[in-house]
Amino acid sequence: MGEEGTKGTVHLLCLAASSGVPLFCRSSRGGAPARQQLPFSVIGSLNGVHMFGQNLEVQLSSARTEDTTVVWKSFHDSITLIVLSSEEGTSELRLERLLQMVFGAMVLLVGLEELTNIRNVERLKKELRASYHLIDSFLGDSELIGDLTQCVDCVVPPEGSLLQEALSGFAEAAGTAFGSLVVSGRVVAATESWWRLGTPEAVLLPWLVGSLPPQAARDYPVYLPHGSPTVPHRLLTLTLLPGLELCLLFGPRPPLSQLDPQLLDRWWQPVLDPLRACVPLGPRALPAGFPLHMDILGLLLLHLELKRCLFTVEPSADQEPSPEHRRRLLRAFYTLVTASHFPPEPGSPEEKVEDAAQRSQVPRACYLVSGPEEPGTGWRLVALQSGPRRLLLLSAQSPTHALRGLATHTLHALTPLL
Amino acid sequence: MMASPISCSSRHSPDELPGDPSSQEDEDCDYEDRVSYSGSYSSASSDYDDVEPEWLDSVQKNGELFYLELSEDEEESLLPETPTVNHVRFSENEIIIEEDDYKEGKKYEPKLKRFTKILKTKSLLPKRYNKKNRNDNELVSILKHQSNQKTGVVVQQRYKDVNIYVNPKKLTVTKAKEQLKLLEVLVGIIHQSKWSWKKSGKQGSGERLVVHGLLPGGSAMKSGQILIGDVLLAVNDVDVTSENIERVLSCIPGPMQVKLTFENAYAVKKETTQPRQKKAQSNTNDLVKLLWGEEVEGIQQNILNTPHIVMYLTLQLDSETSKEEQEILYHCPVSDASQKLKSVRGIFLTLCDMLENVTGTQVTSSSLLLNGKQIHVAYWKESDKLLLIGLPAEEVPLPQLRNMIGDVAQTLKFMYGSLDSAFCQVENVPRLDHFFNLFFQRALQPAKLHSSASPSAQQYDASSAVLLDGLPGVRWLTLPQKIKMELDTALSDLEAADFAELSEDYYDMRRLYTILGSSLFYKGYLICSHLPKDDLIDIAVYCRHYGLLPLAAKQRIGQLVIWREVFPRHHLQPSADSNTEVFQEPEGRYFLLIVGLKHYMLCVLLEAGGCASKAVGNPGPDCIYVDQVKTTLHQLGGIDCHINEWLTSSPSPCLSCADWFLTGSHEKLDNLTTSPILSRLPVTSKVATSPTCRILFGDYSLKTRKPSPSRSSGGSDNGCEGGEGVGLSPHTIPNAVWKQRESQGSDGSEESGALLKVTKKKATLPNPFHLGNLKKDLSEKELEIYNTMKLTSGPENTLFHYVALEAVQGIFITPTHEEVAQLSGSIHPQLIKNFHQCCLSIRAVFQQTLVEEKKKALNRGDHSGSTNSISSLNPVKEYGVLFECSPEKWTDQRKAPPVMAYWVVGRLFLHPKLQELYVCFHDSVTEIAIEMAFKLFFGLTL
User: Fold this and answer.
1) Do strands B256-263 and B514-522 pair parallel, antiparallel, or not at all (unpaired)?
2) Among A296-310, A324-338, B643-657, whose mean pLDDT is lowest?
3) Domain check: are B479 and B606 in the same one?
4) How crowded is residue B500: how many other Cβ atoms within 10 Å of its Cβ?
5) Which residues form the FUZ/MON1/HPS1 first Longin domain (chain A) (predicted)?
6) Total structural domains in chain A?
């Protein structure tokens, strides 16, 4: 194993906590799913140390070598998830959140009942296969960042109010309170109730829709990990335009076939143009022509109370570095500032809460200059916290002392959007 | 009876020390003085030199010495309860003083040796005699426990055997709660442990068992032969001390006759009519007490309840002997809270083994939850052994823990050569226990370490330790050239080792040691060093570990002598170059000698072998070297007032207090400009009166002026000159310069209070016209200071704190305790605490960068590893965090509390040399870290 190098690989193991039987193992290498697997003996000892500790009332939570981080987490005393990552710049925060998302995805597709009450391991294994696709999308490189921030990836449509109106009207007519418009995994518009969905599913549902192969319509049973982990709901998706899907959550009734096609026409035909404008928005997140400073190469805006975020690396796309590189830089920077400085988002109890005495000194902004010694090279990253909003920017050119001004202005301009 | 003059005169009380009152007068602490002093020192002083040094008794079997003696006043205040118990007078000839029992008993043996020494120094015997003896390892004969071996001259009368009857069956008490209970209950002898802490006497082989009382009706009393004051040496010919007595007695299976061997009280007490000796703090556990003050026991309890552990495990398990816990070579402490961590060692062993197999890199740390508390465990693997340290995350953040385990491994290697030799030798166990006791106290109770200091300094120490203890450097105090040169000369003289007794032709034989280098500390600041960086850091980490640096900061040392063999990595690592032309380190042995006197501490690294003669056995400290180092310290006594002045008013960048920036918004500007001066004022006047000022700045007529608060209020037009001073200089120029300039500017200096009244505008805007004037007045030197002083840009001084590490030389600078103490406020201490914690996480990022850089340098050959580094942020070169803070108690309900914002910025320089800079400044001015770094590092050399 060691000799061929494990650089950049992530191994995710899922085991039944009581028996230690592996339920599945997923791996990815360099951001793409990989077949390479850990030997069974290693899986056994990774689980063994954790179990050994648990028997002695010591919870092993993480371990680090010079280039690898391992995180253990057990859920409901029934499922143990272990992730071993040697990706560069990996951190515990990222892996812990990854495990939460993975368990959320398992519940979403299989239901909590099956996971806590394992009667037939082989059957569970088969059922879990359905979640591989979603789980792999967490392990690999994704254009989205919701898995890390635990906020819903959003885009800002040019004519948001029109779409919002159409959506609310349609959902009401269809007989559900939960409806949203999703473009390549990002939410364009959603009903009030949809926004009130709890943490894992709010991120997971659009993510799931984005990760599924395109289809005109789907009727997909889902459990809501936070809201309804044992009773399944039905996720109905209707492709309005290629890449743009309408998602609705229903109870057992009505079946998809009963949804009146005329209802669709009535509500969506009038807003066809705004809908068309949304389709290319996906990776850009911001409406075309939004004034952004030239220096900004990527941005991540989070609203911690609404749990929504805007993430884009599109501006000045012709310049170095590549979009993947930009995404990685911003992800790494987000992890760094969240783990070490900024208070964790409300509603994520797993974060280490710093002692109250420290709280009188509140971090507001943070910048980092990376790259070789020569002036004018490397990247500059800046983070700014203001009220519930947090903005992270990637820039190449701005001098250090101008970073904060740049961030403040940008945040100011973005505030009406989110 | 010759012992009595010896022990009396061997104590030189602090006020007798040269350089105290008299030598302070002569300003340039002259060479002459020193010569004359050392002359008298070596030749004439029969009342000094011919006596056996008091530390000689504390030398241990392996030649090591840790002798610490407090100065007189400290002694009184620190250890009030110990002597009183033992001051029981029985007769004219017999005084029971516990400490004296301890020492006098031992002083018997080396009588002959002492005699020869006296003869030697009186030139009645050739000195070589003594010297030879020492080479033949005679010195070992003055060891602590020689008297236990019944080989002395006066043995026969001194020991007695007493047979008594004991019956353990009579014991109704099931388990002895207190220490020495069996001795009391079974035998009827009452012994009061010298120190209440129960681990007392672990160092060496324990405390002697002095009979302090007899239990009425006990077997001992019935025998009638045991007297109070006797020392119990053996039970049935098994040597006993307070350490093992309980164990020995508990082995008695049933009713039987037991032979007790005592040392006669009378023989012991024969010479104790002399005044009470100062207690030598040779017992290392006392050091803990000394450093942490009186509440040691409470702290101990507190610490014991916190889960923490150190373990040394072997990965090579002998499968044939499946003994329980055989893989544990060492562990500490033994407490319930730590027991759990010990029991899960399987996790650590498995992780270490497995993760290395899977990932190809060594495991560095792991985290676990124990009773809802997060514990970090750091790993240090060497060959097939594993060193583990576990501490709660709350107390010790992970980056700090990683630094700490590195330091521990480094220190142990420095002290014992390798981790194996440290942990695998049985006789080291008590030493390691003590070592890790100190370690955990430092880690878990940093605030208590500095209990006797002023609260602000204590807080500063505690909050800065998080960062500073992990830096690969020593705290440096930049001194003016003149003083520095003097120190350099003194150290060079010592290192040259051409004083009479050390020169080779004096004894017509090779000298014992070559002095490789030395470094001088004053109040915990390094002020002069002639050691390579690695050696310096090794020694500094050792001193830091034993808390010697804070100790010296508080005038607590009467005398400190430390001697031990060390294994400096710099000299012992095999040379990569096999070329014979290149200098090869001799295969010698190295010894560390630390001598402390008052605020000074001089660390000397000695080499045996090489040019000096080879060391045989475990040589103890050589008196001549110790004396010579001490002389050097004595001769430096004169300039300590200068150093002190420099400490309080050093020309390091001026600092502002955070609280000044926090007051109500409309007064803000006022405060910004005026309050810094006010706070500096007391210092200013002090400087003006002191002789230092005269030396440094020539004979300008300086007038002391009362600090006048009125200066800050009002405004007048004729105050341009003074206003200039307020607007610019107080933040930027050292007090003395400013002072002098001001006294020139406003010739009526009595009125300067009024003159200095300024309007806000004038205060903030420098007047270029006057600036030119002033600059003309300044001498060149002062200009230089002027330029380096102001770290921040803009008219106001916005610098709160800084740490600058010069990694190549192994030194760092940071504001002195005195400077920080001047900036008292409610917010400021919090700011400083936050600064250090933030710097720790910034530094963790930098360390990651350094690791990557090192890897890149290694991979440069094959050019492969450079492309895939896109996912991490490295290399990070600058990192800043903006904090906002507001007063904690804000009573005014109508207004929102004022908010002050400040930056904590770290900057890493890889080229041209490795430097790290951490600064904390107010948000009002945008700063460029490189510029600040340039100013700070300018002229920072050893």
Assistant:
1) unpaired
2) B643-657
3) yes
4) 12
5) 11-137
6) 3
Spatial neighbors of A111 by CB under 8 A, at least 6 apart, are: A223, A229, A230, A232
Residue entry with tokens 């364009």: A188
Start-to-end CA distance of chain A, whole Å, equals 47
Q: Is residue B354 part of a domain?
A: yes
User: What gap in Å lies between CA B318 and CA B314, rounded to an integer?
Assistant: 10
Strands A361-370 and B876-885: antiparallel
The three-point CA angle B415-B419-B423 to 5° equals: 95
Count of positions (residues) in chain B:
942
The two tokens of residue B490 are 């003194």
For residue B103, give Cα distances in angstroms to B53, B71, B278, B477. Answer: 13, 19, 11, 40
CA dist., res. B78 & res. A160, Å (int): 75
Both B390 and B477 in a single domain?
no
The most confident of B439-443, B447-451, B589-593, by mean pLDDT: B589-593
Give dist(CA B50, CA B120) in Å, integer. Answer: 8
CATH code where residue A321 lies: 3.30.450
Residue A15, both tokens: 């085991």
- CB contact under 8 Å between A370 and B874, yes or no, is yes
Top residue of A370, A395, A404 to mutate, by most chain B CBs within 10 Å, is A370
What distance in Å separates the CA atoms of residue B721 and residue B741, rounded to the nearest whole number?
Answer: 10
Given a cut of 50, is residue B273 above it in pLDDT? no
Q: Domain range spanning residue B594?
A: 65-70+472-573+586-648
Q: Are residues A94 and A193 in the same domain?
A: no
User: Does A313 reside within a domain?
Assistant: yes
DSSP state of A154: B
Task: Check which CATH number belongs to the domain holding B362 and give it.
Answer: 3.30.450.30
Segment holding B146, helix H or strand E: none
ipTM score: 0.89
Query: What angle do helix axes B828-859 and B455-468 make, rounded to 10 degrees?
Result: 20
Question: B496 — phi, psi (to 5°)?
Answer: -65, -30
Instruction: Provide the residue range defining the domain that includes A163.
Output: 152-284
A360: nearest CB among B879, B888, B926? B888
Q: Is residue B105 part of a domain?
A: no
Residue partners of B932: CB distance under 8 A and separation at least 6: B791, B792, B802, B917, B919
A182 and A117, same domain (yes or no): no
Q: Which residues of chain A are within 8 Å of residue B360 when distances are taken between CB atoms?
A: 1-3, 5-6
- How many residues does the structure list for chain A? 418
Residue B382 lies in a domain: yes
CB pairs under 8 A between A and B: 190
Q: Do B358 and A324 touch (CB under 8 A)?
A: no
